[in-house]
Amino acid sequence: MDATVLPEVTSLGVVIKAIIILTIISAIAGFGTYIERKILAFMQRRLGPTHVGPFGLLQIAADGIKLFTQEDIIPQNANKLIFQIAPAITAATAFIALASVPVFPDFIIPEFIPILGGTFVPSIAADINVGILFVLGMMAAGLYGPLLAGMAQANKWGIIGSARTAIQFLSYEVVTGLSILAPIMLVGSLSLVDFNEYQAGEFTEWLIWQQPVAFVLFLIAGFAETNRTPFDLLEHEAEVISGYATEYSGMRWGMFFIGEYANMITVAILASVMFLGGYNDLGFIAGWFIIILKISFFFFLMLWVRASWPHIRPDQLMWLCWKVLMPLALVNILITAIVMMI
Amino acid sequence: MSLEEFKNRNVGEQSYRMLDLEHTPETGLGKFGQVAKRTVKGELFVGLWVTLREMKNALFGGKMHTIKYPLEKLPISPRYRAIHDMLRLLESGHYRCIGCGLCEKICISDCIKMDTRYDENQRKEVSEYTINFGRCIFCGYCAEVCPELAIVHGGRYETASEQRASFSLFEDMLTPIDALKQQKEFDGFGAVSPNADENIKKTPLAY
Q: Within a domain: residue B36?
């Protein structure tokens, strides 16, 4: 990428980009529920949704209608304001995190479109120099969604869910931060664009070959932060009904899910850009296509893992975090530092 | 899954395998060793492979489990006790029921009601015969007690009804005369055992 020929980023372009992210990621999140149900079904040798539309594709629309028209119940003893705000926190932080992540390639709106014609739409809505830090911070702020939701709803399961939110997200935030510290030291930048350029060229340049431990740690912590299956303690039905989301219905409940799926996509993008070579061309395959392939792979991996592995107990979760992953991350940083010094 | 496999409930004939479970380590070093071993062993990838294999089998191997129920139906066991059937004699097409009243007598939920009379040939014929399926518990005693294999259990297991007491008349359960060739013998309670011919002995004439 030659930075000099890029047109100026206008505020209009950023607004358009924000709208694009919001609409397309929401749509992908909806589609993700369909994909998740289909893949889980196939892995259990079931058919999944089949009746609404061809291959059950319109199931998304049916779910949407159901979520929008469902009665929005607020429990009697709940703290109404916090109860209403909490889902918005989850969804909002998930989308704000996407602001400093490269989502789609740059493009210029064609001239023949009346008002917006000629506007340059950047690949990153906010290309700030502390990109990774901002994304991690926003994903960490996302813990307030489940935490406040669980505590506001005057429900035992909600309280347990929010307690688990606190321990799980706070603990794994440490692992995420420490695990990507070593790659950050190698690249010497917090910008995802720099990460991408560091790995330009053959796939032997990918950071996963230099930092395999960091990659695995980041993936594990990513699963925990997105509340995916081996670590889905927050809302595990068999134990705490639905955890922090027990009393939620309708679109408020849907917002938690959109937030979760947006977070899954964020983690998939982060893992692809930081460890698997990002959106550089690979041989004859174009960069925009290879990044979609990588993100799809990580999305599929999350569903695959959900179909395969049992989830773990809270004490095992804490044990894994503080006694295994965090020491490993520290050792990894130390070794990386020593190798860099030499 | 074939019907034979479905019916095999003999524990021990299936190919079970005992899991090779290790003892829980007692010492700290042992626990550490277990964690280290499990970390390197890649057992988690075996789990991933299993689900991927099942997905491959389901999508490309034709091993999908789902039965699209109202459109497809599983075969039921011939001994299944669903809505009753009244069978006909294969030779004459006349109904088999001789109006003996044993089924009415033995019915423990008191749901069979029958009325008989003599016809012009002084043969007993069934004038009224109803089964109240709101009361019937499908115990199978009627089929077991029937000396003529006339009342048996059929295969109609979809018994949802708009009324609590849904009666069934004799004619509804009787094999239609044009479907006589498709009439199947019942394998359940009261039916002739598969080795009935071997069990028949000559009546001893000389004592």
A: yes
In a domain, B199, yes or no: no
Cβ-Cβ contacts under 8 Å for B32 (sequence gap 6 or more): none
* Structure-block tokens of residue A108: 């210029």
Going by pLDDT thresholds of 50, 70 and 90, the confidence category of residue A6 is low
> Which among A42, A307, A324 has CB closest to B59?
A42
| ipTM of the complex in this document | 0.78
Lowest average pLDDT, out of A67-81, A98-112, A128-142, goes to: A98-112
Please tell me the pTM assigned to this model.
Answer: 0.78
d(CA A144, CA A136): 14
Q: How far is B50 from chain A (nearest CA, A)?
A: 8
Chain B nearest CA to A313, separation (Å): 16
Number of CB atoms found within 10 A of residue A138's CB: 21
Cα(B151)–Cα(B155) distance, rounded to whole angstroms? Answer: 13
Give me the pLDDT at residue B11, please.
65
Of A43, A47, A324, the CB nearest to B55: A43
A–B: how many Cβ contacts below 8 A?
41
* pLDDT greater at residue A64 or residue A281: A64
Check CB contact under 8 Å for B48 and A39.
no
Domain assignment of residue B53, given as a range? 21-65
Q: Is residue B54 part of a domain?
A: yes
Q: Do B55 and A46 touch (CB under 8 A)?
A: no
User: Which CATH number is B124's domain given?
Assistant: 3.30.70.3270
Give the pLDDT confidence score for residue A2 in this predicted structure.
45
Give residue for tokens 């009379």. Answer: B117
pLDDT for the residue numbered B176: 86
Residue B147 located in a structural domain: yes
